[in-house]
Structure formats: C-alpha cells, structure tokens
Amino acid sequence: MGKKWLTYPYHIWMALFTVIPLALIVFFAFTSPTGEFTLTAMQRVVDPIYLGVFWHSIYLAGLSTILCFLIGYPMAMILVGTKLKYRSMLVLMIVIPMWMNFLLRTYAWMTLLERKGLINIILTSLHLPVVNILYTDYAVVLGMVYNFLPFMILPIYSVLMKMDKNLIEAAEDLGASRWQAFIKITFPLSLPGVYAGILMVFMPAVTTFVISRLLGGGQYTLIGNLIEEQFLAVGDWNFGSALSVFMLVLILLSLGFMSRYEKENEGGMFF
Amino acid sequence: MNKIVKFLMISALCLVIGVMLVGCGGEKTVQRELKVYNWGDYIDPVVLEDFEKETGIHVVYDTFATNEDMYVKVKSGGSDYDVVIPSDYMIKRMINEGLLEKIDFSKVPNYKNVDAKFKNLPFDSQNEYSVPYMWGTVGIVYNKKMVTDPVDSWSILWNEKYKKQILMLDSPRDSIGITLKMLGYSLNTSDPEQLKQAKEKLIEQKPLVLAYVVDEVKDKMIAGEAAMAVVWSGDAMFIKDKNPDIEYAIPQEGTNLWFDSIVIPKGAKHKAEAEEFINYLARPEVSQKNAEYIGYATPLPKAQAQLAESIQTDLAAYPSDEILKNTEVFDDLAKNIAAYDRVWTEIKAAR
Amino acid sequence: MNLIKKLYAGSIYLFLYAPIVVLIVFSFNDSKSRGSWDGFTLRWYAELFHNSEILNALYYTISIAVLASLLATIIGTVAALAIYYHMKPFQKNIVMNLTYLPVLNPDIVTGISLMLLFIFVKFELGFFSLLLAHIVFNVPYVVLAVLPKLKQFNHSLYEAALDLGATPRVAFRKIVFPEIMPGIITGLLFAFTLSIDDFVISFFTTGSGVNNLSILIYSMARRGIHPTINALSTLLFGAVLLLLLIVNKRITKTEMN
C-alpha cells in the first residue's frame, strides 16, 4: 500500500469542511460583534453558572456512556454468538428503530413514561407500584441510552466478530477459565471497538438538548441548549462560539486519557 | 452479511437513480413562481392548491420551526423566499434591520377586510410591511376537575396546592412576560430591577412546576396529566375541544397579544406574485378555511362570521374588546435579549 | 445460559422497539392528539397519499440518506486507510482530532458554519449543499467505525500475501478488505441512520423547495406533529422490515444451495 497520495484528498476534504468552519468558530470566539479581537466572550464562559451547565452536561453524557457500555457489550457478544443465518438480520434490527424520526421516538417515550402512561397502566393492572420518572434525570439518561445504544453495540460487535478464536481456545487449553480468557484475551483485543463506541456515544450525548428538553421537562439547560440559544434566540454568535470552543477543548482533554492506553499511538487525542 | 449489503446497496442505488430520473424528467415550462416560508402545518393545504389553480402560479412551500431559525436563514442570505409569516417582535426586528420590503397595498385591496383594531399594530405602526394572518392571546388552561380556586390571576401558578401539577412554557419571552404582567410591569421591560424581581418569582415557582413544555402541553392537558398550563389561545381551543373539563382564562393583570403576520423579505424576486398571494390570503373565505384548519383566530371579521357559532362566540378564541384593551404586544428586545436569556439560564440552573 | 442470553437479547429488543410500537399504534388513532384515543381510523394513511409536501420530503430524505451514506462510506474508508498506513504519529494525532470535530461540535455550530461557507463560496443552497453537508457529518463516524478493524487486522497476513507474489492491489482486495468489511458496514449503517435523522444541519444547509422529513417534522413542533407522520413512519418501518425478511430469505436460500 505504497500509495501516499491516498492521504491528500482527505487533507483537502478536512481543510474545507473541518478546518475552515473551525477557524470561523475560533474567530468568532475571540472577537467582538464588530470584529475586533477581545477576550470578553471567553471570559463570560467561565462564569460559575455556565460551568455548572458544562458539568451537568458532561455528567449526564458520561453516565449514559457507561450505561451504554455495560448494556451494549454483552449484547455485542450475544450477537457474535448467534447463528450465521440470523446474525446479520439481528444486527440490522438494532439499527432500524433509529431510522424512525428522533422526535417521534422521543414523544413515544413520553407516552410510555407519563403518570397515566402505558408503563404505569401495565404496572397498575399487575398491582405493582407506579413509576414516575418522566421529567427527572432518569428519563434523560434513559433517552440518551436509548438513542445512542446502537453506536456502542455495533463497533464492539464488528471488532468481536472477526476475532481470532484460536487465541481464546489456546488460552483455555492452557488452563485459563472462560472468565480469565475473556479478561486477558477477548476484552483487551476488543478495546479499539470499545473506544470507538465510547467516542460515538459520549460526544454527541454531550451536545444533545432535545432529549433533556422533552424527557427532562426543560428543567435545566444543557450545553447544547445554551449554545443553540446563543446562536438563535440571542443572536450572540461570539458568545455561542466561545462556549463551543471551550467545550471542544474540555471534551478533548477529558477524553485525552483514553489514547494513553492505546498502544500504537494512533489515538488522536491531544496527549 | 456481505451479500446482504451488496444486495441492499445495489437496490438502493437503482432506487435513487430511478427516482432522480423521474424527478428530472419533467422539465417544467417557464411558469410564474412563488416561494413561501411558513410555520409547519400552518395553512390548509387546500388553500395552496386553490391558489395555484386560480392563478397558475407555482408555489414552492417550505416550513420553519421557530422565528429565530427563520431569521438566521433570511438574514444570512441563505434563502430566497418571497413570502414569510413571522411573529410580531420578529417583524419589528426585521423592519429595524432592513430585511423587509414595503408591501404595495394598492395590489392588496383585500386589506380592507382586516379588522380595524388589527391595523397600526405597534410592530408595524404605519401599516407598511405586514398583513395579519392569525392572532391570539396567552392565558391559562385548567382542568375544572382538578382546580377548584377561581382562575383570574397569574398568581394561581404560584399556588402550593398545585405542586407538580403546573406546566409552564419553555420560552423565555412568554414565561418571563407573564411574570412581569403579574407584577404589574410591562412585558417588554428593560428595567433590570423589574427583571430581577421576575427572575426571583420564577425561581420561587420552580419546585411547583412539573415541566417547561412547548407543544406537548396539548397532549398533557388532554390526558389530564396536569392541572393547569400556560398556553397560546389557539392551542387552548384545541385542548378544550378534546377534553370538556378544560377551561381557558385570561388573568385580569393582562396578557400578551400576539400576531403572525405576512411579510415580504427584502429583495424578493417575485414581489408581484407575493402581493397576489397576500391578497388571496386576505379573502374572507380563504382566511376562514385556514382558521378552521389551524384552529387559531382570524383577523378578518367577515371570516370570523362564517365560522361555527360556538367558536365565533368563544371568548378564548375571540376575546372581548375589554380584555383586549388590557393586552400588550411583544416588542423587539434588541440588545436587551441577552438580559432575558441570562435570567432564563439562571432560572433553569436553579435547583 | 442460553435462556439467559435469549432473555437479555429479548429485553434489549423490547427496549428498542417499545416506542416504535407506540408510534404504530398511534398512527391508527382517530385523534390528532396523543392525549386521547378516539377510536380506530385509517384516515391518516389516506391523507398521507394526498400530501405532496410529505411525499416530496420522503423522496429527498431517502435519496440524500442513500447517496450521502454511500459517498461518506467511500470517503471515510479511504481516509481511515490513509490515516492508518500513511501518517506519522504526530500527523495522525492532528488529523484524528480534526476528524472528531464534526462529531463533537453541536449541530447548530456545524450547521451554521457550513451554511456560511456555502454562502461565502456562492454554492447555491439546495439538494447538493444538503448532500455535501450530510457527507461532512457522516465521514467521521465511518472513520471511527473502520479504524478499530484496521488496528485489529493482522498485518503479517498482508505481507505474506505480497511475499507470495500477490500485487498490492490483489492483496488488499483479497486480504485486507474482507477483514475490515464489518467496520465498513457499521460505518455505512451509522451514516445512513444519522443522515435520515438529522434536522439542525439540514435546516441550515438546504435551500427553498428541498426539505427532508426531519425538517418537516421539527417545523411542526409548535403546532404538534401531524398524525400523518406517524402513518408514514409505520409504512416505512413495515417496508424496511419486509425488505429485510426478503433479503434474509434469499441469502439463506443461496447459502443452502
């Protein structure tokens, strides 16, 4: 694969569609509405009230990511273990619900979770106590897990699928228990898939705001919400950009630890 | 897996190419055209069809979700619409920023059908830029079975008795606005002290609020999930229709009077067609169709007179002049909007 | 053990499909509101076929999603190969960080900055700007899905093939490509899923007359989503499921022979 030129199209692509928009945001973040250099917008970001918003967003997204991982990993293993005949169908069935519109699905969750919603109707008919989780953090996390779970399951599944089974058999031949074989062989080998899954769940989850507005009852502002308000309602693109830049740095830093564990140094985080 | 993907990809590709060919096949002859930008589900589709049939003008019809979404697209030059239907304060802002074209009212003779009380509105005081499309008020819908106290003041939204039974609007302008009204101030205030009082009131109210909602409020109130909610009058009509236990009240402290009006953006390429369309919408029978489809109130008395008796006389949809006297229209906050947003963020951040 | 596995998988599918079932049920509700059940009706289905706005949006949604996901998959796979094989660690770091950006940026930021870019270079907003924007936010997901497979791939196999006289091209097609295929498919699925569901970026990068379903649905949010949308979703869901069953049956058959 000596085709060095392969890298050029992507460089151009990124220069056009990633670097230029990024430069635009950074420019806005460090200028005043009249275009002069200023740090005012960045200084406003470190107001405790906004830091609280950052913290809450990252906390909810982090929690959802962990849950997605805990729920998704076993599911990916089960999928790998199914008969070839059904496997691709089962995998596709993980993604298909996501092809229905996001807003519709979230509204449907509201119908399920309401005080007099379907879940409570079923619970009452079974003489079980009702649950009231709509408009709480639980509902928001549930919504996030629901919407991002496929993004955790599929990368892990794709890594597990073509794993060299001989390694595991060899380990078991050498006297390792199934659990030991999993911890020592399977899991470490699946890590690239896990990282990819974490990135694809965590990063969009931080900036989502429709879930918190609908399932959380708009009780608090998340960072995606705040940025959207600045760009649209307030029309303060400078402050909106400053918030985005701060968030980018914050998340790249907080995810930075991950690449330290990646042996080949292809991580892509700042460290 | 491989084969499935190949099969799917090939069939998908065939589909797309097929559809594209069909789409490109019918090269249209040169035709008069009109590009309309409106709220989603905010016109009777029949009206558009009839207009096309009658005039031969082809209508390209797109929709937006909020005034602000629309504003960013129009302002940035990312759109080429000939007719847009924003709300009051946004029209003021667009006039101030020179984003609107003056309407040639000699081409809109049906403007005479608009109720005199809806002319010279504060956001377009000279009647140069806009023609009202729909209007309404903001008030409280409540479930008679759950609310026993009289609903005549905004302060009922602060009543401990209805803890976690109250739905507020997830909209800074509306929620802060009614609080300012309750405190006896203008809902366009720029006085920081008055804003601060409103903020404290809303933070005090937060534990009582079940959720800050937008359109879900209709489903929630119909299903009886909450005792009362702040809503736009048009939505109140819909809720009342579906649940007979619901009543709508406009508190005595006064409220917001709102308008969605038709305007022409600066540089519209089809201004003549736009004026023709505006004139068409101002026909009583057309406005009647829209009012029936949307469920909001029409600003044309002749159209109102054609509606069902029960709606015409419903004070929720068509409040008396006495109530209307005590209302205020949103003004463009301009620079002050940041202060409102800050207040709203602080309310949301309060625990 | 097997039973536990089945139960676990079953509950995951239940979780994923519960809202879809609700959606389907409400497409038959005679009320415009989810708050009340006014009886069974098919009128939303009838209305659907008279609503050219919705059908138009459906056409754009599907053509954009299919084209964008296919193109993004090609670009993303080539990019992943380039990043993996041809970049020095330092360069790799920078490129990967930049690759993540569109995932990390709030949609509103990506949407507005792409819109400004298109307006600035006088690229007319419409079908092609929408398509391009979708490819832009899809590519990182494809890269992220393909890279783990490359890391996992045993490269001595590729070298062995070369040693045995295979040209790099043949070695790539016969050895590397099949190995990273699951990653490519995952990327394709993600790209399609994201494309079909995107609202904010689509809204700002499209032009007059070109709408996708998301734009239509979100713009209904102030007035309440019209039940015809539920009817449409139900039909789409049915069509996808049917297609899946047919394809699966055919594949199984060919494999049996």
Automatic annotation (TrEMBL), chain A:
<feature type="transmembrane region" description="Helical">
    <location>
        <begin position="181"/>
        <end position="206"/>
    </location>
</feature>
<feature type="transmembrane region" description="Helical">
    <location>
        <begin position="138"/>
        <end position="160"/>
    </location>
</feature>
<protein>
    <submittedName>
        <fullName>Spermidine/putrescine transport system permease protein</fullName>
    </submittedName>
</protein>
<feature type="transmembrane region" description="Helical">
    <location>
        <begin position="53"/>
        <end position="76"/>
    </location>
</feature>
<feature type="transmembrane region" description="Helical">
    <location>
        <begin position="88"/>
        <end position="108"/>
    </location>
</feature>
<feature type="transmembrane region" description="Helical">
    <location>
        <begin position="12"/>
        <end position="33"/>
    </location>
</feature>
<feature type="domain" description="ABC transmembrane type-1">
    <location>
        <begin position="54"/>
        <end position="258"/>
    </location>
</feature>
<keyword id="KW-1133">Transmembrane helix</keyword>
<keyword id="KW-1003">Cell membrane</keyword>
<keyword id="KW-0813">Transport</keyword>
<dbReference type="InterPro" id="IPR000515">
    <property type="entry name" value="MetI-like"/>
</dbReference>
<keyword id="KW-0472">Membrane</keyword>
<keyword id="KW-0812">Transmembrane</keyword>
<dbReference type="GO" id="GO:0005886">
    <property type="term" value="C:plasma membrane"/>
</dbReference>
<dbReference type="Pfam" id="PF00528">
    <property type="entry name" value="BPD_transp_1"/>
</dbReference>
Automatic annotation (TrEMBL), chain B:
<dbReference type="InterPro" id="IPR006059">
    <property type="entry name" value="SBP"/>
</dbReference>
<keyword id="KW-0732">Signal</keyword>
<dbReference type="GO" id="GO:0019808">
    <property type="term" value="F:polyamine binding"/>
</dbReference>
<dbReference type="GO" id="GO:0042597">
    <property type="term" value="C:periplasmic space"/>
</dbReference>
<dbReference type="Pfam" id="PF13416">
    <property type="entry name" value="SBP_bac_8"/>
</dbReference>
<keyword id="KW-0574">Periplasm</keyword>
<dbReference type="GO" id="GO:0015846">
    <property type="term" value="P:polyamine transport"/>
</dbReference>
<keyword id="KW-0813">Transport</keyword>
<protein>
    <submittedName>
        <fullName>Spermidine/putrescine transport system substrate-binding protein</fullName>
    </submittedName>
</protein>
<dbReference type="InterPro" id="IPR001188">
    <property type="entry name" value="Sperm_putr-bd"/>
</dbReference>
<feature type="binding site">
    <location>
        <position position="89"/>
    </location>
    <ligand>
        <name>spermidine</name>
    </ligand>
</feature>
TrEMBL record, chain C:
<dbReference type="InterPro" id="IPR000515">
    <property type="entry name" value="MetI-like"/>
</dbReference>
<dbReference type="InterPro" id="IPR035906">
    <property type="entry name" value="MetI-like_sf"/>
</dbReference>
<feature type="transmembrane region" description="Helical">
    <location>
        <begin position="98"/>
        <end position="121"/>
    </location>
</feature>
<keyword id="KW-0812">Transmembrane</keyword>
<dbReference type="Pfam" id="PF00528">
    <property type="entry name" value="BPD_transp_1"/>
</dbReference>
<feature type="transmembrane region" description="Helical">
    <location>
        <begin position="224"/>
        <end position="247"/>
    </location>
</feature>
<protein>
    <submittedName>
        <fullName>Spermidine/putrescine transport system permease protein</fullName>
    </submittedName>
</protein>
<keyword id="KW-1133">Transmembrane helix</keyword>
<dbReference type="GO" id="GO:0055085">
    <property type="term" value="P:transmembrane transport"/>
</dbReference>
<dbReference type="InterPro" id="IPR051789">
    <property type="entry name" value="Bact_Polyamine_Transport"/>
</dbReference>
<comment type="similarity">
    <text>Belongs to the binding-protein-dependent transport system permease family. CysTW subfamily.</text>
</comment>
<feature type="transmembrane region" description="Helical">
    <location>
        <begin position="57"/>
        <end position="86"/>
    </location>
</feature>
<keyword id="KW-0472">Membrane</keyword>
<keyword id="KW-1003">Cell membrane</keyword>
<feature type="transmembrane region" description="Helical">
    <location>
        <begin position="127"/>
        <end position="147"/>
    </location>
</feature>
